[in-house]
Amino acid sequence: MNRYFKKSLTPVNKSNTENLDYSMIKMPQISFGYMHKSVQQLKKELFEKLEYQRALKRLDISPNPTKYRNPFRSTPEPLFKNIIKRNKFIQDNGLDEFIDAMFFNINNSYRLLNKDLVAPIDYFTAEIQVRNLKRLKPLVKVIEAEDVDKPPLEDFWFRNISKNYTARWDTFEEAICRHFILNINTSIGTIRKLNWESLLKKLLRKISSKSNDIELWPGHPGLASIPYKGPVVTLSNFQNCVTSGKFKSLAAKSLGSETFYIGERYKKNVYTFACGAEYKGEWKSYMRDGLAKMTYNEDFVYDGYLFKGRRHGYGSCTALGGYYKGYWEEDLIDGPGEIAYSDGSGISGVWKKNQVVSGRLKWSGGEYTGYLSPLYFEGSGVFINKQGDIKKGIWVKGKLNGDGEITMKNGNFYKGSFVDDHLEGQGFIDTTIFTYNGEVKQSLPEGFGKIVYKNISSDYEGYFSAGTINGKGIYKIDSHMLKGEFILGKLSGKGEKTIGSISKYVGDFSDSLMHGKGILRISSENCKSIYNGEFKVNKFHGNGKLRIGDCEYKGSLAHGELHGNGEILLDKVKYKGTFFKNEANGRGSVHFIDGSYYDGEFSYSRPFGSGEALDANGYWLAANFLEGKPVIRHRLRNDFFTNLQEFKEKLMSFCALIEWINENICSTDFNI
């Protein structure tokens, strides 16, 4: 034994330990900002206090010793052990340094132990929020391994040693004892040198001396789920808890043995925790290591491999009506694995540090297979919602972005480039009504494209806006065609209308109807004609020139009929005057090929009223006419009246062709 230890660190036996007086220990308000000092700050304090620098120099110890380690990792011995073993000036102040280091380290030991007991609750709490997913919220609550110089999400001292919180004594003493088992056992001689009375007093003093200068973190919600009826650690009974029970027994029994005392709860390869949890399996260096089974209670069971007390390798964990089967690394789900729940929901795939990165996710909202991030579908994958719709492609933050396709249960199909679940750019749309191939925006045709309708043999190729035909384009139905500028699906402005090989109109349109000036050409067995003039709502209306076969009309029309002033040539019979609904009506004159004529008033294309007539023999007559004949005696030749009758018949034939054009050409409507 080093002689410098003898003066201040007197070994005590079991009886001495039992007679220790702790009545003088006081418990002021507690706070714990000290533990969140960085590792570098701790090192600096350890070497600056008193005369450590000179001692280290004399002992040739490097001023930058090996880094402080987490007690659960395979790194060199912790710094405080080196100080205790090598510093010849460790008296009371040396004990302070030992407690400083232990104080810093014991927090991590407890936290890891506590996490060991409640981890299954973490993994399955709220059923991993699977049932509340909105485009995939976090799949698994992340339990990250924090650096020792960062404040943990749950700090043992914050949670348990304050006015507002209590600690279960079983987990508290397990934490302290675990710290000694993990960090002091390799130097049993050091334990014998410790003055346990002084150590406990200084430990309490260290905890009590810090002011509340940092924010308290919330406690662990899962701890309350494990049944416990034992004592608790509070501010008032902290002294009694520390100086009694297993911790006191541990200290006393360890002094008389070369192996560290584990406890009476370890029997027949089964270690029973005070909370009722049981461990059955292999041990290595006083740590749970190897194939084992950890039963927290009937609802929480881990069965698999451990490494240095942590789940590592293949294992299964059941909790809250669900289970996980797969691989672990450093107490985190890592590798192939599967989580399943009693309602049929679950996750199976490949995990990385508690996050599923690829696999199959199934819940009440649907099913997803592919790559994931902690919060969203991320990467290549397929999603099937509860309605039966299928989304397949590249996902970014839970939405299709990039090449993909959507198949709806109603039969609609979308394929192309997606941005936030909507087709953008080039795309293909297939519905029960039509197919579309072209430019899209927000999953609607936008820009140039082609749409083919299924219920009728028709298609449109041209420009779209917000899913509506808008801009230049060509619409075809059977052998008919509309071509020009479309506004909201209607041909407006300049355009063309073709009805098979029969007719073609070039001119003005309004709502896909001939309206304004234009030229209509008709070529059929029934009629060969051309009209150049004004239209109104698909009818001849206004001034125009109409030629049908060898007949030609020039003048005014209304609603597809000869109406108003005009002149017509019917096989060398010429009429000039007024018309009313395709009849010569009013003042007018008709001239025949033999030189005869009539000039006067007409009614229904016959002389009616006052007028004058001249026959082929040169006989002239001025008289009143009734139903095409003079009301007085006359000598007009019979062929004069024959010419009048032929004029009426030819005019009727001409107007009959106009009606055919109205019904078969002008009235043909094939709007989109």
UniProtKB/TrEMBL annotation:
Single GO cellular component term: cytosol
UniProt entry tagged with the keyword tRNA-binding: no
SMART domains tied to this protein: MORN (SM00698)
Matching InterPro entries: MORN
Keyword annotations: Repeat
Protein name, as recorded: Uncharacterized protein
Organism of origin: Stentor coeruleus
